[in-house]
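Per your request, structure below.
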């Protein structure tokens, strides 16, 4: 059944000149059928630079919205309407505007895990792979960092000469992990190298051998001379790690599952292409302003 479904998806994709983009937290069979799998930054770049008419975005809503912002002439489809990111819902425009009033000299750096409306009132966006670079390069000494307090505090540690005003948002999957969770795994196997996503709390980051985005973690493990790793991010990244690193062993942390990322199935992708649902539409005035923040990220955040 699954093989038949995959063939049907590939056929429809070709007929409609569509491209399937997937995040590393998607289930394995979605990653396997995608044209491109990446971290949030790579996916934004790919959404802008491709010649398809339709983008099927297998991820969560803010990712599909960013694709539409960057590629307004393409049809962008999110296979599961309810696939959201709870952290993106932790910042609202009104609150951001109030914070801006309290800090008139600050620039607003907004993590892409945010609504398109919040991006529209931001100076620049960032992802976990380029947040440090962007805060370093941006022309301001005071930064309002929205919405992830953990990524924001990590950036503050790395860029001590600037003042970061933190927002009180977090990712429920990463924020609940404690130092104890990591130390227990290390007790069982002291040789484990600990690879951590910066959405984790500082007590967890302090135990890391490497801190980075999903792609950063995957690349670090691939290049490393070590063979055993504890992966402290959403379990979806284990799919590529295990597929492409034979002879290396990867241990995840129990319960690190993003329910929203796991909502998309092959059936949803097929229905999405067949019925052209669920299309992302954004008010043009909001889109233009959000595009400014995302384009600024693509310029400042690239190597
Ligand atoms: P990356 O940008 O590292 O892929 O992370 C996205 C995300 O949602 C992390 O929870
Ligand atoms: Fe949002 Fe966390 Fe899921 Fe990433 S892992 S999409 S930040 S809820």
């Amino acid at each position: 059944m699954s093989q038949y479904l995959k063939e049907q998806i590939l056929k429809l994709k070709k007929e409609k000149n569509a491209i399937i983009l997937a995040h590393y937290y998607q289930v394995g069979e979605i990653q396997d059928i995608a044209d491109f799998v990446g971290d949030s930054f790579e996916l934004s770049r790919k959404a802008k630079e491709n010649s398809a008419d339709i983008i099927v975005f297998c991820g969560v809503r803010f990712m599909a919205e960013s694709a539409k912002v960057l590629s307004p002439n393409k049809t962008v489809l999110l296979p599961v309407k309810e696939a959201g990111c709870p952290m993106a819902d932790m910042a609202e425009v009104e609150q951001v505007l109030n914070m801006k009033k309290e800090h008139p000299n600050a620039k607003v750096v907004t993590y892409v895990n945010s609504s398109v409306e919040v991006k529209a009132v931001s100076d620049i966006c960032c992802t976990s792979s380029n947040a440090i670079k962007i805060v370093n390069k941006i022309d301001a000494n005071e930064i309002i960092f929205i919405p992830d307090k953990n990524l924001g505090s990590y950036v503050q540690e790395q860029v001590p000469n600037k003042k970061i005003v933190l927002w009180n948002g977090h990712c429920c999957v990463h924020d609940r992990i404690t130092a104890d969770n990591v130390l227990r795994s290390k007790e069982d196997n002291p040789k484990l190298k600990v690879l951590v996503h910066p959405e984790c709390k500082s007590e967890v980051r302090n135990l890391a051998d490497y801190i980075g985005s999903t792609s950063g973690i995957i690349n670090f493990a691939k290049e490393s001379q070590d063979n055993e790793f504890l992966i402290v991010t959403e379990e979806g990244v284990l799919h590529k790690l295990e597929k492409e690193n034979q002879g290396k062993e990867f241990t995840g942390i129990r319960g690190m599952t993003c329910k929203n990322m796991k909502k998309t199935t092959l059936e949803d992708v097929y229905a999405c292409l067949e019925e052209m649902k669920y299309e992302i539409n954004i008010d043009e005035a909001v889109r233009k302003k959000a595009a400014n923040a995302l384009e600024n990220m693509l310029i400042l955040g690239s190597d």
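The pocket of 1,3-dihydroxyacetonephosphate (ligand 1) is lined by residues 39-40, 113, 127-128, 171, 199, 213-214 (CB under 6 Å).

Regards,
D.
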